[in-house]
Design a protein that fits this description.
This protein is α/β, with parallel strands linked by helices. The strands form two sheets. A seven-stranded mixed beta sheet has the order 3-2-1-4-5-11-10, sandwiched between helices. It has a four-stranded antiparallel beta sheet with strand order 6-7-8-9. Helix 2 packs across helix 3. The longest helix has 15 residues. It starts with 5 loop residues before the first helix and ends with a strand.
């Protein structure tokens, strides 16, 4: 998914995504809902920035997994004390239990179908202790995206300049994000193209997936970033 842009991922997202603010909200939520929690699993962890902040600033032990081998390699380097592995959220088995399993940044949308949402939630449940929490930040519901609208993000450091321009298209219940990158280093400019596909699910459909997975849940419409947050509990 991020085969070409993994090395620029943090530089681009740091420009507009408030990782420290989100980590603070996550820690506060965990403290309120599961005060004894210590061990966390970050599913679809990307480059492991949330994990890094939750460990360094709030004292949690954090492991992670991601389907993208390039991103998980970066996450492992950032978080040498944790277990960070290449795995699919719908069929992973780490043979460990956690106090909290979280799947943030709308990554649940990458499973594309409701059947696979349920499979993923069942794997989350299998990896959380009785009474533990499962936090899922959803992707947009049907009608929540404006297809064709251009969005632009950029980043610049002493070593490189990066620009990402993109737009979304929608067919039935599948949204496709079309990204194009220009990455400039001294004397060189590279052009990369990526396509990301995410399923569009209603709040009611997501609720049924939690129920089918045997999880009780509540839904916060604002969540961490305005996209909402499902807070589920095992047992």
């Amino acid at each position: 998914m991020f085969s070409k842009s993994a090395e620029q991922y943090d530089k681009i997202y740091f420009g507009f995504k408030d990782y420290p603010g989100e980590a603070k909200k996550i820690a506060a939520l965990i403290t309120a809902e599961c005060s004894a929690a210590h061990r966390l699993l970050d599913v679809a962890c990307g480059t492991g920035e949330h994990a890094k902040l939750l460990q360094e600033n709030y004292g949690y032990e954090v492991d992670g997994l991601d389907l993208d081998e390039n991103l998980i390699a970066l996450a492992g380097r950032k978080n040498p004390n944790g277990l960070f592995c290449h795995a699919d959220m719908v069929d992973f088995d780490l043979s460990k239990l956690y106090d909290v399993v979280m799947c943030l940044f709308s990554s649940i949308g990458y499973v594309k179908t409701l059947d696979r949402v349920t499979l993923a939630l069942k794997r989350f449940k299998a990896h959380v202790k009785d009474g533990g929490l499962i936090l899922v930040e959803p992707w947009f519901p049907p009608g929540g995206l404006a297809p064709g609208k251009i969005f632009l993000h950029s980043a610049q450091t002493d070593e490189l300049s990066a620009v990402r321009m993109g737009y979304s298209s929608i067919q039935d219940r599948l949204s496709t994000l079309h990204f194009e990158y220009l990455v400039g280093t001294q004397g060189n400019i590279e052009h990369h193209i990526e396509k990301h596909e995410l399923g569009l699910f209603t709040e009611e459909e997501m609720g049924r997936c939690f129920e089918e997975a045997g999880l009780s849940f509540s839904y916060d419409k604002e969540g961490l970033t305005g996209r909402g947050l499902y807070v589920a509990r095992k047992g």
